[in-house]
Amino acid sequence: MTEYEELLSGAVSGLRGGGLAAAIGAAASVFEAIRLSADAYAGTEPELFATWLMTAAEAADGRDALLRPAPERSAPLVPAPGIAAGQLARLARALTDLLAEASGRAGDPADVAACERAAACAERIHDLLAQDTS
Amino acid sequence: MTATLGDLLNRASEPLSEAASIRDLPSSTVVVASMRLRTVVEAMSRYVANPHAYPESSAAARASARMFRASRNLARAAEAGRNLPGPGAAHPLPARIETSVPALIAGLDMLATHYTTDTDGWVLPRSPWADVLAVPATRTALLAEVADMAAIIGAACRALAGVPSPALPQASREALRAAGSQLRALLPGPAGEPEYRQLVRAVPAAMAAPRQTPDQPEPVVELCEGITASAERIRSLTWRPAPGSLWPPSPSLSAWRWSGHACAITGRISEQILAGLAERSSALGLMSTGPALSYAAIAAGTAWNAWRHTASMAALLTEAVPWEAPGALRDDLDDLMIRLGRLAYANPMWTPAASQRAPLKDLAELAPGAGDLRIVLAAVHQATDSLDRVATADLNSVRSADPRQIVPQVAAQVPASAAELVRMYEMTSHAMGRAAAAVGVPAAAAGTQSSFLSVMREVHRAAAEATPDRQRDRLLTAIQDKPPGVGPALWRASFPGQLPSAPHAEEPARQPERARPSPNRATRLTASTQTHR
To answer: Do B197 and B224 reside in the same domain of the chain?
Structure first.
């Protein structure tokens, strides 16, 4: 399990104990890590240039969707080391699951909407990166 | 495919050319055909109903008078042969001639959609084509189109006058010959500059064509048509009415950022296609186009790199206040990117998804012949021009935004600010303008159907930098002599075979904010009750 998968896994556990803000912060951190990685890969994998750039765009939108409602509650984002390209699709799937659960547990409509928007971004990132669409 | 004024003029001229080539016809049919030609002339005369809409107003007035006299002669020809026995209107030719009338009226309505008149009588542009249509060279080109059409009608009159049927009265023949002479020499002067003739024939209606999503694999020609349609929609959506205001709908950082990423991808694909066409042009013997294509590829490369850096900079920023308005251009930029990708890569269902990755097409498949190269180049030209419009529109939006609302993202490791973002957009807009101009050079050299875009760019640049221009204001005032309508007939003429797919599909183009009289605006529309219908 990678560092970011562990972060998300911990966020899911925390969410069940009422830690919505921490879960949102963790998800935002993972979006930012995906964005930075995708931006870097766009320069090194020209055959997947379009894939990486669209991934970066979706990741920035997902991050901003989560940080906008209550930035003061969000964990500061840490600078992200590169994530292996092959792991990003799996990470996006884990993000989608976390955010789906978070939106179900959130009480504030703004949080619900933010989680749903971010989950849609994560879903699109997964679709962009998944190698097998069957 | 969206119809243009040129398509409608072609549709109008076809039956008239058929009439001009007849050698024999029953005399009773000649009489009915004369009556139908008269209705065509009357429809044509509406193009010059207001001579002041043309820079050479005396020439336009003379043309109008000649058409009036020709119409009278056609009425005399019909009157002299009234009640002749024979098939008359049962012959197919008169009905064919009559089909020219709705095409000509639709063309006139198409031109009128680009303007509107506010409650104070001010004539206002409604589309990016409005400035183009107010340029004297364009008006002269339009007058030349009218003269060419009249010449075809004149030839038809003379053909009718020459039928061998002995039953046709001499008075009818003489009246037809006179009408023919009047129509064939409508304008003595020059026929308009070729590039402006092409420009005026490229004018579409100022209403958005229905979006055609790239759901299925398409052959190259359809891909290029789809790219052209998306580019036209983007031109319309990015147009910013004067007097200046923020271009609606309200943009957001998220929308700019998404556009930036999409434009970087589309620009890179354009560069790849242009480089391929440069190489292919040698094999096809188009040696003179090759260097210009290579230079255009380099310019496109510079532009997409600028887009990429701008998008990356925008990703370091966020908005202080949530703003969830969807990007107005998102769907069209998406369609443009996907179709251009399918043009370039060896996968007819290419998308940015990793599962659809594919190598570049073989060049012989991309452009098998010189004609194919022109079609692909025209599509890339259209795409590049539309990205230039996006760059300009987004630059204006970013400049207009409140910098306090665009703040660095909390974890940004690279200094970023709204002011820095403006500088990046300035650089991108400059690079994109250079790229659009560079692609226009081989497009013009190869004589592509997109060549008019270069002229249009020049017109818009001149309009943006212009000081008050009395001649343009006078033309603008005279052009608009009816309120624009977007009726079903114009819709059918503009988008043949396509039904309005969504409630917004028939909406007129955006209305500019109500104009305020200013020292720059010296004209006022005189009330007119004339209509084109």
So the answer is: no
B115 pairs with which residues across the strands? B125
Per-residue confidence at B246, pLDDT binned at 50, 70, 90?
very low
| Surface-to-core class of residue B368, CB atoms within 10 Å of its CB (0-12 exposed, 13-18 middle, 19+ buried) | middle
Structure-token match 């304008």, residue found: B187
B521 occurs within a structural domain: no
Domain that holds residue A109: 3-71+86-131
Selection from B123, B146, B132, B155 nearest residue B61 by Cα: B146
**pLDDT band, very low/low/confident/very high, at B511 (cuts 50, 70, 90):** very low
Query: A117 contacts in B (CB within 8 Å)?
Result: 324
| CB of A87 closer than 8 Å to CB of B421 | no
Is A20 a member of any domain? yes
Q: Which of B357, B338, B360 is nearest to A133 (CA)?
A: B357
Is the same domain home to B23 and B167? yes
State the Cα angle at B504 between B499 and B510, rounded to 5°.
125
Are B189 and B230 members of one domain? no
Tell me the per-residue pLDDT of B106-121, one tens digit each, with 9 for 90 and over.
Answer: 999 999 889 887 777 7
Three-state secondary structure call for residue B369: coil
In chain B, the percentage of residues whose pLDDT exceeds 70 is 83
Task: Find the DSSP H helices in A17-134.
Answer: 20-44, 49-67, 85-105, 109-129
- The range of the structural domain enclosing residue B423 comes to 220-448
**Residue from the list B253, B261, B355 with its beta carbon closest to the beta carbon of A132:** B355
Q: Is residue B290 part of a domain?
A: yes
How many domains in chain B? 2
Q: What are phi and psi of B287, to 5 degrees?
A: -60, -35
The pLDDT of residue B469 is: 59
- Å from A24 to nearest chain B CA? 15
Residues B133 and B276 in one domain: no
Residues in chain A: 134
In angstroms, rounded to a whole number, what is the distance separating the alpha carbons of residues B433 and B385?
8
CA distance B129 to B236: 9
Q: State the residue for tokens 């370039």.
A: B344
Give, in order, the Cα–Cα distances in Å from B307 to each of A31, A51, A59, A92, B267.
22, 16, 18, 26, 8
Is the CB of residue A14 less than 8 Å from the CB of residue A7?
no
Q: Which residue has the tokens 């009159």?
A: B157
CB contact under 8 A, B311 and A57: yes
Q: Cβ–Cβ of B341/A50 closer than 8 Å? A: yes
**What is the mean predicted confidence (pLDDT) over A61-66?**
90
pTM of this structure:
0.82
| Number of C-beta neighbours around residue B394 at 10 A | 26
Model confidence at B230, in pLDDT bands (50, 70, 90)?
Answer: very high
Q: Which amino acid is at B176?
A: L
Find the DSSP H helices in B113-240: 129-133, 136-161, 170-184, 194-201, 220-238
Residue that is written with structure tokens 């790199």 in the block: B305
Q: Are residues B265 and B142 in the same domain?
A: no
Any A CB within 8 A of B250 CB: no
Are B322 and B252 contacting, i.e. CB atoms less than 8 angstroms apart?
Answer: no
Q: Is residue B66 part of a domain?
A: yes
Residues B249 and B167 in one domain: no
Residues of chain B neighbouring A69 (CB-CB closer than 8 A): 322
d(CA A55, CA B165): 76
Number of domains in chain A: 1
Is B389 part of a structural domain of the chain? yes
Taking contacts as CB-CB distances below 8 angstroms, the residues of chain B near A71 are 410
Question: So what's the pLDDT on residue B474?
Answer: 63
Does pLDDT of B74 surpass 70? Answer: yes
Element (H, E) at B408: strand B406-408
